[in-house]
Design goal:
The structure is a single chain. By secondary structure, this protein is an alpha/beta fold. The chain has two domains: about 260 residues, 3-Layer(aba) Sandwich (Aspartate Aminotransferase, domain 2); about 55 residues, no CATH class. It contains 17 helices and 15 strands. A seven-stranded mixed β-sheet has the order 4-10-9-8-7-5-6, with helices on both faces. The chain has a four-stranded mixed β-sheet with strand order 1-2-3-13. It has a four-stranded antiparallel β-sheet with strand order 11-12-15-14, with helices on one face. A hairpin with a 5-residue loop joins strand 2 and strand 3. It is globular and about 75 Å long. The termini are far apart. The model has no long low-confidence stretch (mean pLDDT about 95). The structure holds pyridoxal-5'-phosphate. Pyridoxal-5'-phosphate (PLP) binds next to loops.
Length: about 425
């Protein structure tokens, strides 16, 4: 532990550690928080929640979770493959399948486990079956800015998780430039061998950049590789992209069938922690055979199934999204308004979605900026300096009002003026 101790002490001394906030209660975008280090309490207006459609406190969603507790209790007390599968799991899988236009869906506790299960199932199958020989290598192409759950699963992809060594043929993983389909095409030409199984995996909306994967172009590139698999991580896309919140296919006005028609197998990972007021993840596929493999993957067998209240909240949230498309259009309108106000106020933003990264000039430290916003204005945004390049990360949601955004912009302008180094202001 010596290295850990010395490192952490220096880390804290240099101010690079994240501040810790503890929530004591929440009403829409008003949150009662405590600064863990000082015990100081603030009632703040939040711009850092991922509750994009505002369903976390929606009465129907809360009630569904409460009813599920009455029916099943708080835990299923087993993994799904043994005795922990409940009817709500099946209902949620069916609802997602319809929502995503892919008929076969399997649930997981979270995105990291879903991705790991997908790599295990796709690359390594399951238990040895007499008479079946797995001989084909896998080539996986991954966008360089993919989320950690993908990177992590790919780092293990050559070995089935839960086993010391895999018996399967090799898995080769290559990165392509961010959203660059020419680079993807070039690298596929360079690395794909004739008998390879090919998979491309990417965030649909990039969680630190707020931009959208060029899905139609990717399908075109992959159509040269019949049977190739295209995996979209829709963590920030579901409920947020497309007219009805259907996700990235909806955004581009296409469906997974369009990929299938071009010889590409579309897989979608949905997560429930953002639009669906809950936690958990699902993988949806057009092929029935993937599901039983996901069901017995190490991350399904080796851990608890999705608890009933969590499942019920996600299920009711998806029903709400499908019933109330106005939630999605409000989110889109709010995103447009906030992005335009930020530009008017000379803040540099990237991306186009409700995830809004604001790149500050190098003289402005995001952590100092966010602390000032909290302290002086009661406004909560996420400073980023350790997961990605320094920035503020602001998320628009369907519950914000224009007055909330006007207040945020005024506070950001005041903060910029207050913390901008005075020597630079004098010479500017
Ligand atoms: C692209 C992406 N994938 C996966 C995740 C993880 O999702 P969850 O926390 O719902 O498991 C996130 C969370 O921020 C994400 O942005």
């Amino acid at each position: 532990m010596e290295v850990v101790k010395e490192y952490v002490q220096r880390w804290m001394a240099s101010g690079l550690d994240p501040d810790e906030y503890i929530c004591h209660g929440r009403d829409g975008n008003r949150v009662d928080i405590e600064v863990a280090a000082t015990g100081q309490r603030y009632n703040v207006l939040t711009f850092c929640t991922n509750d994009v459609l505002g369903l976390v406190n929606e009465p129907a969603v809360r009630q569904a979770a409460i009813d599920a507790i009455h029916q099943y209790g708080t835990s299923n007390s087993s993994c799904a493959v043994l005795s922990g599968r409940i009817d709500l799991h099946r209902q949620l899988e069916d609802e997602i399948s319809e929502f995503k236009h892919l008929p076969h869906t399997q649930l997981f506790l979270n995105a990291w486990m879903a991705m790991e299960a997908l790599m295990d199932a796709f690359c390594h199958l399951a238990i040895p079956v007499p008479g079946f020989q797995h001989t084909r290598e896998t080539l996986i192409m991954s966008d360089v800015l993919n989320h950690g759950c993908i990177i992590s699963a790919l780092a293990h992809a050559n070995t089935r998780s839960g086993k010391a060594f895999s018996q399967s043929p090799k898995v080769r993983v290559k990165a392509f430039r961010h959203c660059n389909m020419d680079d993807l095409a070039r690298k596929l030409k360079r690395y794909a061998k004739p008998d390879d199984r090919i998979m491309v995996v990417s965030d649909a909306v990039f969680s630190m950049d707020g931009d959208i994967f060029p899905l139609p172009e990717a399908i075109d590139v992959l159509s040269a590789y019949p049977g190739s698999v295209l995996v979209m991580d829709e963590a920030h896309a579901s409920g947020a992209l497309g007219k009805s919140g259907g996700g990235i296919y909806d955004h581009y006005g296409i469906t997974p069938q369009d990929a299938i028609d071009k010889g590409v197998v579309p897989l979608i990972m949905t997560t429930f922690s953002k639009f669906a007021a809950s936690a958990g993840a699902a993988i949806s596929s057009p092929e029935p055979e993937l599901k039983p493999l996901l069901h017995v993957s190490p991350t399904s067998i080796g851990t608890i199934s999705l608890p009933a209240p969590v499942t019920a909240a996600a299920l009711e949230s998806i029903r709400q999204v499908r019933k109330r498309p106005e939630l999605v259009s409000t989110l889109h309108e709010n995103t447009r308004y906030l992005r335009s106000r930020l530009l008017e106020a000379d803040f540099e933003t990237v991306g186009t979605t409700n995830v809004i990264p604001v790149l500050l000039p190098p003289e402005l430290d995001p952590k100092t900026f966010a602390r000032h916003l909290l302290d002086k204005h009661g406004i909560w945004v996420s400073p980023i300096w350790f997961i990605a390049k320094p920035r503020l990360r602001i998320t628009a949601n369907a519950l914000h009002t224009k007055a909330d955004y006007d207040r945020l912009i005024d506070a950001m302008i005041e903060t910029r003026d207050a913390i901008y180094p005075k020597t630079l202001t004098a010479t500017a």
